[in-house]
Amino acid sequence: xxxxxxxxxxxxxxxxxxxxxxxxxxxxxxxxxxxxxxxxxxxxxxxxxxxxxxxxxxxxxxxxxxxxxxxxxxxxxxxxxxxxxxxxxxxxxxxxxxxxxxxxxxxxxxxxxxxxxxxxxxxxxxxxxxxxxxxxxxxxxxxxxxxxxxxxxxxxxxxxxxxxxxxxxxxxxxxxxxxxxxxxxxxxxxxxxxxxxxxxxxxxxxxxxxxxxxxxxxxxxxxxxxxxxxxxxxxxxxxxxxxxxxxxxxxxxxxxxxxxxxxxxxxxxxxxxxxxxxxxxxxxxxx
Amino acid sequence: xxxxxxxxxxxxxxxxxxxxxxxxxxxxxxxxxxxxxxxxxxxxxxxxxxxxxxxxxxxxxxxxxxxxxxxxxxxxxxxxxxxxxxxxxxxxxxxxxxxxxxxxxxxxxxxxxxxxxxxxxxxxxxxxxxxxxxxxxxxxxxxxx
Lengths: 287, 145
Known about the structure:
Low-confidence stretches of chain B: 1-6, 73-83
Number of strands of chain B: 10
Distance between the termini of chain A: 27 Å
Oligomer: heterodimer
Largest interface: A-B, 19 and 20 residues
Shape of chain A: rod-shaped
Shape of chain B: globular
Largest sheet of chain B: 5 strands, mixed, barrel
Order of helices and strands of chain A: HHHHHHH
Number of domains of chain B: 1
CATH class of chain B: Mainly Beta
CATH architecture of chain B: Beta Barrel
Low-confidence stretches of chain A: 8-18, 283-287
Mean pLDDT of chain A: 78
Radius of gyration of chain B: 16 Å
Strand content of chain B: over 45%
Mean pLDDT of chain B: 84
Radius of gyration of chain A: 46 Å
Structural class of chain B: mainly beta
Number of helices of chain A: 7
Number of helices of chain B: 3
Largest sheet of chain A: none
Number of strands of chain A: 0
């Protein structure tokens, strides 16, 4: 403990009480009457320690423990909410996949219809080719003069019919490839649906585990409260008070080097004496 | 061959077709029509070359397989055109007969070849197909009666 503190509290040489007074001062900076009283009690208990460092250390430990507990609780809650969100997204995704599968099925049916249409078109071109061949034969039968025009028309029709027939064959082949692609799309969608169902199950498991963890953490919190006799708010306040106390002690120590001790004592006495009186009045028997 | 020589050669109208890769020609006086292969009914006990009978423009006609008539079993090589899968209806001494197993290559007028009965089709020589001999072969073939 700084020398200056000891000299300031010469009127009340009990160093433990002095530290309790400082702690009370710091506690005044906090908020709420009930926590303040508990804080006061705890710090006074700590002040009865020879150095006061043990109480401060315990307070810091409890505060850290509660902070960790709160972090864990928040993380578990976040995990549960994330699992719920994942399940919700998966449900949406399943809807989209189902719609996609329906459309792929529709396209597949349409592709089959088109394939039939192309087959009929191919037959038509084949017939047209035969008509052209017969026209050529008729032209040949008519002879050089009148048959020539018919032969020319026949050749042209046959050439076009052949082109049409080839185009139909190519389109039919492309349609066949499209059909096999659609089959693959179907199987991919089935796999996506299966994977989605598995992920949904996993998300449900995560949600359940998260709920369990949340319950367990709540129980840990209750037990922690029973064991330490503190709650998160008090632990936080104690930790903050400890920090403030350290800062105050440091500031008083620094002040001791600059101002005459008698002046400082005279200045602080009116503040500290009522507090000390209050401390004496609030003193409760320790169990 | 120069233009004058080409012009001097006579032309024959008809149909050119392939049978097992070989190019054949039938004059327009015999080749009546090219039609899709019709539904055929087998003739019980008939020779193999007779594929059956078919209804063509209201008449029942025999249908003969050119491959069987020519006794060609090998697969053709060097196709000029895709097979049309057509039947060539021929008229021989007042009778009609359908010829299948052929790939019609072209119809029209073709330049006569060096040898009588041959024509030039796209730089290739086509022999005249002997339909009468084919019919005779079917007639003389083994009938299970």
